[in-house]
Amino acid sequence: MRMTILGCAGSVPGPRTAASGYLLEVDGFVLGLELGNGTLAELQGVRSPFDLDALLLSHLHPDHCADFSALTVLRRYHPAAPYPERPRRLPVYAPAEAPERLANAYAPHEAERLETDLSDVYDFHPLGRGPVRVGPVELTAFSMDHPTEAWGLRMRWRDGTLAYTGDTGPCAALDELAAGADVLLCEATWTDAPDRPRGVHLSGRQAGELACRAGARRLLLTHIAPWTDRAAVLAEARAGFPAAELVEQGAVYEF
Length: 255
Description:
Blueprint: E1 2-7, E2 21-26, E3 29-33, H1 39-46, E4 54-56, H2 62-65, H3 68-77, E5 90-94, H4 98-106, H5 110-113, E6 122-126, E7 132-134, E8 137-143, E9 151-157, E10 160-164, H6 173-178, E11 183-187, H7 204-214, E12 219-222, H8 230-240, E13 245-246, E14 252-254
Parallel strand pairs: 3-4, 4-5, 5-6, 10-11, 11-12, 12-13
Antiparallel strand pairs: 1-2, 1-14, 2-3, 7-8, 8-9, 9-10
């Protein structure tokens, strides 16, 4: 698998840094993972958005899906879309309410919202019914602990496994999600402190301990809030998993 970091800022985009977005390429299959603020511009810098074979959205907070409306405009109105070569309806694997919620975000006013339907552009599939096959990837979704419906995503292909936490507080499902993963792509929004709200995000310490406990081979830290000290998050994670790494926008990982 080849993974390109389109954006890795947590909760909001940061200075010259897009929010959550990753481009995964496996055996010629092009899979988008999240499409947060600013990621569509970054995607166009490395691939045509029409190259996407499917899109995964772990949950529907804007920092994970805000650019979905822009992608809709592109797919609907581009004057030279390569539809003879690509299916017009892009498969989207997302929370159950995604068709309605994303239509709400796309519609400019109330009258249009009442009649907006994105099914001409997308083929929606609710997460949670799995495992399911997405091209060469076997996708299994795990319910996470977050203020909205949110899923951790485990992707297995013929010679590897990527576990992606999405956004979550500590929960039992994380250990099953991450167990023995070749790569754990883990949010670590903030540093560890006793007054952090429960059921929202992981700290660097919690991410490192999770990777160690689960026997993950590699830990990639992402979704760090722009107001958080990245070096401090990394130091916390390395206390539990010495080989932890911070992802960087534009970086490419092959595994």
